[in-house]
Amino acid sequence: xxxxxxxxxxxxxxxxxxxxxxxxxxxxxxxxxxxxxxxxxxxxxxxxxxxxxxxxxxxxxxxxxxxxxxxxxxxxxxxxxxxxxxxxxxxxxxxxxxxxxxxxxxxxxxxxxxxxxxxxxxxxxxxxxxxxxxxxxxxxxxxxxxxxxxxxxxxxxxxxxxxxxxxxxxxxxxxxxxxxxxxxxxxxxxxxxxxxxxxxxxxxxxxxxxxxxxxxxxxxxxxxxxxxxxxxxxxxxxxxxxxxxxxxxxxxxxxxxxxxxxxxxxxxxxxxxxxxxxxxxxxxxxxxxxxxxxxxxxxxxxxxxxxxxxxxxxxxxxxxxxxxxxxxxxxxxxxxxxxxxxxxxxxxxxxxxxxxxxxxxxxxxxxx
Length: 368
Known about the structure:
- The protein has nine helices and 22 strands.
- By secondary structure, it is of the alpha+beta class.
- It starts with a strand and ends with a helix.
């Protein structure tokens, strides 16, 4: 696969009035391949939207280099900067960004008119773009007459009408209702398959990213934490932050003593799990609520604190030491509130104890 988007040591720093100097993007190095759907994922303030804006050319670099389709478009050392309109990108944003005074046809045709395309070709290209975004017959309608989903389809049609090699999508589905978001996810993937453009998709919604992506980059506080396929990120997160950000997580504070593992708050009952090498005395073990075994005869003895019946699962809260663990089971596994039970942790992951300073900084960045 050919390299389509390459970031080399890309850095972006801001100075804010209230929070001072912030490194929003810290030495990013990544390659997005031709025809790939690559998502930037992370909480507010992690640097994902800033990175997209640097690729688009809406922000200039503090340091580093960006290459698109084999052409360098930003290089701070060489004072090279190609403006957004000359980068050949398609873009769709969170706000529908359609012009209310233009009908559907004129909204979609606008980038072609800017390029000086002749009227016959504009008619042909717009018609095809509208057909591929299910907007046939709405050429004369105005955005105010259309639903949110139809307005977002206008933005998609306008993005694909120029046949870009790279499409940048910044939270494009966040203003849509859940059912329509799911429909639009499939439509975006179908458009990518048909036109073979590369997609860079920015979102804070992990389900959305996992459904649409070939690979994902998880960012935190301006740093790349992990890049991998959705399934590898979910099953093998490199740290506690990635584990907690992708899907539901259950974390247990534990203490290692005399070669045994104890839940913090209960040094009388050891957990039956192997201890990896090079662990500290205090650690955190992590698992998924639906990966915890709940039985009546073996494991860590405890009881059901609370039971909640949900459409697809039954959710239990059970004490372990001084903590309450969330456990999710199929409906066929039935325990009553207050009933004695046993817990088994299957292949948990081990992480250092939580860093309070990191969490404070993470919250601070969300205020920018």
